[in-house]
Design a protein that fits this description.
mainly beta; 5-stranded antiparallel sheet; 39% strand; single chain
Amino acid sequence: MKKSYLMIAAAATLLTACSGTDTIKESIEDNNPQPFTFSAYADKVTKGTNSSSLQDFYPVFGVYGFKNVTRNAGATNEAVFTNVPNEFFATDAQGSTVYNTAGTKPSDEWAFTANSWYYENVRYWDKMANSYSFFAIAPYEATPAPALDVEATYDNIKIGTSSSKYDISTEKNLAIAGTPNAVPQAALTYSGFSKDYMLAAKNSARTSDVTLVFNHILAKLNVKIEKADTYKGKQELKVNELKIEGLAKEGYYEYNTNFTTDSWHATGTYARDITADYSLTAQTNYSGCYWLETLMFPQTTTCSILGAQSTATAMNDMYLYIKYQIGSETYEAYYDFAAIWLGNTAAVNDEFSFAQGSEYTLTLTVGPDPIHFAAQVTQWAQVESSLTVN
């Protein structure tokens, strides 16, 4: 997890899919056809407290699968799975998407094992198939929007096109989400995004259990705000607004080499703006809480200017704006976003890239220097005279 820290002063101014070494050779050569079964995990590309269990993010994923078979016309790729939902079942009971008809359950078709993934209408391995290829995506959508494109010859699933893009500006801010009374949260949630897109690597293994390791293909951005330990004032310190400007808005995805190389084609920008008063010093305060937990496209931003600024005039790319209040006095400051992440090494025109599959946490420490007075007295100017009185 990439972390950055910024002191705010009162300036006047899925890895390659795993596959076991065991094959299903014996099974496909006998007369007992074996069903396709799937195991799914979420790869923790970055450090953090996020889970490696896919069901903690999404309990249903969609799978695509093809078999290559030789018939009279030659070898062809035929679809076996086309966005088939696989659901996680802790118990043998009715599901939300799979076996979701009253009275149905996985054991209607499967030798059920608790805490496993199941789909309906079991497919079986074809012992005459030359090869198989599997793809998977989470979250599952019955009608994906934007549409998905996948073929046996592809490296992975394509999401959207240049004319049909995913608009990430509609994504949730999990730090302040839910009811109108929601407030900054003390801990990160990780789960609950609308589309925390995850893909499993293309898997061609012919194993009894097809293992799918899902990879986050967006970036994640968190912002925490805390009161500086040095702030001792009696007046209330509260944050009025936090804004990140210049986030990429719309994009489509075409797999490029691996899951850490940016494969998104993103255009347009938008601002993530939080406008509400949250105290850092009141009896109930939100110092040390997260103001922002959201998803963003991988993107590169260029440093325009260093240091705090009183206006956004010199900000040519991404920037952070914060507004806070001490008593009745208001303070505002703008910071170049690349400069924040580059830290002490930052220089104008340097670039910073938010990588695909990485999580970034920025801690803003609000603690202005107090105006303090020292007193001295200017000594009397000495003027002397003399007079002789006769």
